[in-house]
Every structure is written in structure tokens, then in C-alpha cells.
Amino acid sequence: MKPDYKNWMPKGMVLTAVLITALCLILFILFGLTGLVSGTLKTVLFLVFLLGTLAGLGVSAWMILLYRAFSYNGTRQMSKQIIRGIAEQVRLPEGGKGLDVGCGSGALAIACAKRNPKAGFLGVDRWGKEYASFNKPLCERNAKAEGVGNVRFERGDATALDFPDESFDAVVSNYVYHNIPVKDRQAVLLETLRVLKKGGVFALHDIFSQAKYGDMQAFVRKLKDMGYKKVELIDTTKGKFMNPRESKWMGLSGSGLLIGRK
Fold first, then answer.
1. Tens digits of per-residue pLDDT, 8-58?
2. Strands 97-101 and 120-125
3. Cβ pair 41, 34 in contact under 8 A
4. 3-state SS assignment for residue 228
5. Do residues 179 and 205 touch, judged by C-beta distance below 8 A?
6. Residue 107: how many CB atoms within 10 A of its CB?
7. How far apart are CA 130 and CA 20, in angstroms?
8. How far is CA 118 from each of CA 72, 91, 95, rounded to the nearest angstrom?
């Protein structure tokens, strides 16, 4: 039995884009190149479905390239590289507890649990319809396939974690917060850090662009002023997880790893 961590570019989204493109192409041929309609209407439909086909081809090609890059079974395996890179930041004491916010298919929680066999890890996610193939049973099957028994999974909300202050020795996350439709994502980061114990470590990877987060260097200074230690925002687009060219065409510019200790 092998784990199935799915793909950050869901296959359903790729297939939908391809099908819409195919439909536009069919309609372009029917109404733009045949005699079914004529005159101004034919010209309008010709242009509409031509543009739809060209746009669909571009989007479909981009999605397919992303799917191949993120695949755990492909040659690039960017997802696996990122998961391993984040997990390397986590060292838990014996009997310690870690939290993965937005665990998806369980990959990061399982990787952290595997690296810390004498501690326990919890993955939480709302598992929304946008990523319908990601769910709690999938996470549990993946943990079983990896032979990892010190991890479990629950439904949870990253904006309001259902845990008391200072509940965990480590908190991690990967490409989650930028998907949350809130105005203040720095506040969501603080909500995650709220449940971190004194002395605990954090490793949060996301697209920390100005447009999505505001001034993250100011946030780093804020954490230091609050007493957090060794706080650092590492640019992961300059060779750590990807190169600058990849980050641009993938739409991942601004990706960074926020690490530190409480």
C-alpha cells in the first residue's frame, strides 16, 4: 500500500479546464467556420469562441505543467521537496505535541510525525469543496501506508483554532493562509502562534507577498518585540524550494518560510 498525497493542482480542475477548452473549440468550429449562422452573429461568435479556445489552451497548459511539477510521482516533485524542507525545521521533545494547520492530504503532518517518533502530531483542516479529494479518511490512509502511528487528524478552522493558548510544542503549515478569504492574514498567523507553547518552534510556509500579507518584515519585527526568538523569513524562491523562474510562472512569487521560536 502506497500513500496518495494527491496533487496541489487537483486533477478535477485540470480536466475541467481541458473540457471547457474542448467545448469552446467545438463551438468555434460549428458557429465560426460553418454556415450554421451568418453575418454579424457569425463574426461575433467566431471571435468569442476563438478567444475562449486560445485562453483555454493557455490555462490548460499552465495547469498541466503545475500538475506535473507538483506530482509526487514525477521528476520535479516540488511538493515533496517543500514538505521535507519544512519538516526538517521541527524537533519535538519526547512526549511533545505538534500541529499542522491546513493539513490537506496529511503529507506535512505525517512527515513531521515520522521525524519525531517519540512525539505526537495533529493535522487539522476544514477540507472544503475546493479540494474535494482531500479529506480526513485520506489522511488516515496515508498515515497507515507510511506506517506512522503517532499522528491523527481532525476538522478545524485556521482562523479560530479550537485549542487553548500554548497547547503545542510546534506549529507548521504549508501554502494555506493565502487561500483564506480574510483581509488580515497576519492576524491568522498570530492565531496559529497563539497555540504554540513557550519555547516551541514554528515553521510556516506560504506566499508572503505584499499584496496578500502587507509588510512581512514589519511582522517579523513585531514577533521579535513580542518576545519570539530567532524569527526569520526565508525566501524559498531562490533555490531552497524553487528557482525564481519557477516561482513566477507557477504564480508562487513571494513564497517564504517563516521560522522561529516562542
1. 998 889 999 999 999 999 999 999 899 888 999 999 999 999 999 999 999
2. parallel
3. no
4. coil
5. no
6. 27
7. 18
8. 27, 10, 6
Cell of 91: 524537533
Global pTM value = 0.92
3-state helix, strand, coil in the chain (%, to 5): 45, 20, 35
CA 39, CA 244: separation in Å to the nearest integer?
48
Amino acid at 252: L
Q: Within 13 A of 228's CA, how many CA atoms are on the CB side?
A: 24
Q: Is 102 exposed, middle or buried (0-12, 13-18, 19+ CB in 10 A)?
A: buried
**Confidence grade of residue 130 (pLDDT, cut at 50, 70, 90):** confident
Query: In this structure, what C-alpha cell is assigned to residue 96?
Result: 511533545
**What distance in Å separates the CA atoms of residue 172 and residue 70, rounded to the nearest whole number?**
20
